[in-house]
Amino acid sequence: MLVVGGGPAGADLACGLARAGVSVALVERLQRPEQAAFSSAALPLQALQQFGLPAQVVASRWNGWQLIGPDGQRRQWQQPAVLGAVLDFAALRRWQLQQAAGWGAQVQLGCTALGCQAVDGAMVTTVRQADGRCTGITSSWVVDATGQARTLLGEPDPRAHPLVAGVGLEWLLAVDQPLWEPWSGRLSFMLGSQWVRQGYGWIFPMQPGQLKVGVCRLIDPQQPQPALGRSLETLLARCDLGSATVLDRHGGAIRSTVSRHEPHSRGRLIGLGDAVSTANLLGGEGIRHALASSRTLLPLLLDAIGRQQQGRDEGEQLRALVPYRRLLQKQLGWRWPLSGRLACRTWLGLASNRADRRLERLLRGLEGVRADQLSALLFDYRFERYGWRALPYLLGLR
Ligand SMILES: Cc1cc2nc3c(=O)[nH]c(=O)nc-3n(C[C@H](O)[C@H](O)[C@H](O)COP(=O)(O)OP(=O)(O)OC[C@H]3O[C@@H](n4cnc5c(N)ncnc54)[C@H](O)[C@@H]3O)c2cc1C
User: Which residues line ligand 1 (CB under 6 A)?
Assistant: First the structure.
């Protein structure tokens, strides 16, 4: 078994397979898990518990929200109980890869997969090693966990399964305690076209003295968009963080289809995590969904491997994977495609004073809800339960 990509999805699957006694190799193009730690990595508490993430990957915990609107007004929702965590994404990767290796997976860093093909009932994947040599790895199955790049599975047919793309830029800052304090214990978002046109900004607390500050937007193929770097610098200046020391600069893309109907596998090649559109476009988050895809695929893959070991024919082996897309869709829930449509409407539409005024009305409408209700709205997409006041806005009725 070969897993390509050592992000949250691939590392989790490699660990699960190795733990079940399967011979598994994981190749990851990064030389070190600390490189390009692009994710802001904010998660609700339930995800930490569900996926058994340990304290060592948690940078800070949060128990409230702060939404800063187009007019600069700060609205806060806070409660005593912890609602979630901001992870240290590099520490998460490091821990996951150690876990996988600890259970017996062969983890090769600095190794880039270039392509794969089926040869005589097996898969041959061409990889470039850290020293530049290209070699072939033969395996019964290959998992493409290369994130939104989808290196092996390739792009879905753009007419049938159009990808919606977002791009984000984030800096890790070192700040003095008095500057860190106002942003601690909560997730802060800056909303409005004057902050980020067709997107939003954020400030998340890491350990004391460190903040993650970022901006992202959906890519609008219809119109030119100003450079994100300028939006980030403006945001830093408006939040009095312009003189903070920058420890790291990183960024990345999120690309998902809204319906998630694209093929999730091709023969013995199977997609996982962002490679099959598990990243959510509304909140720009996908770690827990990538992990969910791994937990959904694992038992099916073990079944397929078991059938192979029993000498059943290829068709019988592949049939074990048929429920994968449907089960994953069920796991992500019926609100998923709705949240994708809302993402397009909300972010792409946020490009005028009129849209800012609509957003102001939405923020005012949310003033009466509790912090945990806001979490349910933003992380569980529970528009129908807590967001009735928001729904007409989001559906374009206001
Ligand atoms: C700016 C930004 C902020 C985000 N903030 C959040 C957040 O706050 N909360 C949240 O939950 N999610 C967030 N996300 C999304 C989240 O990080 C992803 O959804 C998640 O990392 C997906 O996991 P994955 O394992 O599917 O893919 P990835 O994490 O992308 O992992 C893919 C891995 O494959 C490797 N790879 C790629 N190509 C090859 C190749 N050819 N050969 C070998 N290896 C290869 C890559 O180096 C990478 O390590 C954010 C994303 C961005 C861009």
Answer: 4-10, 27-30, 38-43, 112-113, 145-147, 149, 151, 168, 170, 214, 216, 251-254, 273-274, 279, 284-288, 290
